[in-house]
Design a protein that fits this description.
Mean pLDDT: 91
Helix content: 40-55%
Order of helices and strands: EHEHHHHHEEHEEEHEHH
Radius of gyration: 18 Å
Low-confidence stretches: 86-95
Structural class: alpha/beta
Distance between the termini: 15 Å
Number of strands: 8
Amino acid sequence: MSATFALALGGGGARGLAHIHVIEALDELGIKPVAIAGSSIGAIMGAGMAAGLSGREIHEHARSVLGRPAEVASRMWRARPGTLSEMVESGIRVTQFNVERIVKAFLPEAVPGTFEELKLPLKVTATDFYGGCQAVFEQGELISALAASAAIPAVFRPVTRGNTLYIDGGIYNPVPFDLLDGLADFTIAIDVVGVPMESDARRLNSIDLMFGATQLMMQSITAGKLAQSQPDIFLRPPVSRFRALDFLKIDQVLAETAALKEELKQAVDEILQ
């Protein structure tokens, strides 16, 4: 009987484009995870994989969209408020995009509307804002769960699901490997949070400081979790020089994290020896 693997894909905005290398490496190794858990961008990448898309298909979709600024602009336009009343209700605030519309506009068409239609089990984390706790979605409507998981505060509006208000899953659980305990022989976890990096080119504004402070908080949460228990494979690609919203830099992100693919293959080889 061959070994089974579970996969945890962490949050980190555009830095999570590095997850594409992980999905491609697993495809090349012939490994199909028995369970996937994801936060934020990790949940979105995990949904593509759980829907049955190959790493190559996810890679091609991401490049065909994010590699073309005009295509990004057109999809953002499609994600704009649909009616005047919706626009007035949200107030015309640059920072409060409707994350559900954006997720829907950018997801590959193969990703279904519900968890039940996925080909692999998926756990999606979000943060219950007023409950002050982690929420884990694994059934029902998929798009709102992915949107809740990716609702970065101050950039996207929180997501209401049922009567509960949710924000970014990475706030409570940046790399949700603990959700996979006992589900497979081996757990692989990928951390793409990064840390704030000094830049001579510009002064930090309040958004930079907020994102940087969030990174430090997420690093602290992950360090605390790793002190309790560790996944069998835990990898951190070099993503710190990219910012959370650097999606148009897909070519640079993928180029600078290309070694992740071989690193993962080698780590899998080692634990199977």
